[in-house]
Design goal:
Layout: H1 15-18, H2 22-46, H3 55-68, H4 74-86
Length: about 90
């Protein structure tokens, strides 16, 4: 696991990765964690925080929903490189 990345639930992993080795699961979780950080920044630009006390919670929930729903495909692209680096 790469330090500093957000925690990603196992349910967000594709079935083929969930059934793989721990190293493979960790590599995919790291890729999803990076994707989550990137999406969080993008969502922050799309959903302006303004002065609402709930804005950050809405942004976080939206980002988590995107990642838990499979993300935008960035993690799948990063995964082979992370898997190779971990080996």
């Amino acid at each position: 696991m790469i330090e500093g990345l957000p925690s990603v639930p196992s349910s967000a992993l594709p079935a083929s990765v969930r059934d793989a080795s721990k190293a493979d699961r960790d590599a995919y979780k790291a890729a999803l964690g990076f994707e989550q950080i990137l999406l969080g920044r993008l969502v922050g630009e799309i959903v302006p925080a303004g002065d609402s006390p709930y804005a950050s919670s809405v942004q976080d929930a939206f980002t988590a929903g995107l990642v838990n729903g499979g993300g935008i495909g960035l993690a799948a692209s990063l995964y082979p490189s992370l898997r190779k680096a971990a080996a």
